[in-house]
Every structure is written in C-alpha cells, then in structure tokens.
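INTERNAL AUDIT FORM
Audit reference: QA-55
Scope: verify that the stored structure record matches its stored sequence.
Auditor: D.O.
Record contents follow.
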Amino acid sequence: MVQAEADLSAAKDSCYSKHYNWSCFQAQQSAEKALKAYLYSNGYTSVITHSIKELLRECEKSEKKFSDLKSDAVLLDTFYIATRYPNGLGGELAPSEYYEKEDAQKCLNSAGSILNNVKKFSKI
C-alpha cells in the first residue's frame, strides 16, 4: 500500500510537470498496487494480472462494494500499454504527445477513488 500511495503522488507530480502519459500510467500502477495489497492482506499469495478490472473482481469476493469502482477500473486499464508504447496508439503521435491534462486528471481521480476504498475496506 505504501508503494501505491507513492505511485499516486508521482502521478500527481507528473501531471503538474505536464508529463500526462506518465501521470496516467502511474495512476494505473497506483490502483493496481492498492488492489493487490488488499488481496494480499486477505490471504492471497499470488496475483498475476495487471488488469484493474480483474483485480477488482477478486476484491469483490470479499467486499461487494468494490463493484462500485468498475468504471474507474475500466478507465485505468486503457492506460496500461498505450501510455508507454507508440505502437499502442493508432496514428503518428507518441504517447507523450497524445495524452492531455484531462486524461491525467481522470486517471488521478479514478486511482484516488480506488485507493480510498481500499483503505476503507481493508485491514492494511
């Protein structure tokens, strides 16, 4: 959970410095790590996925209210590859040119919501 919080802080810093693609990716990483922390704290010993939606489904098995975060999960999943690799996007723009402040803000909001709920529902 400590790393999830650090990643969210880094995502905010990246947004402030106009590195929007990195902000989106770091927000995705923050949510992924927070959900994995929740699962590990609930007895999981191995979690092998980067999909926020899949992680959320696992978390729902012990806390049904995680289902309220599905739209946040789907949004963040779209930023895992394309924010880092030019061939993850169609067209000529590199990720550093493609993503904008609004994208980063949406990702920050979604990751923040997931982190807050993990804290609310967990024993961490």
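Auditor finding: record pair retrieved intact. The mean pLDDT is 96.
Action required: none
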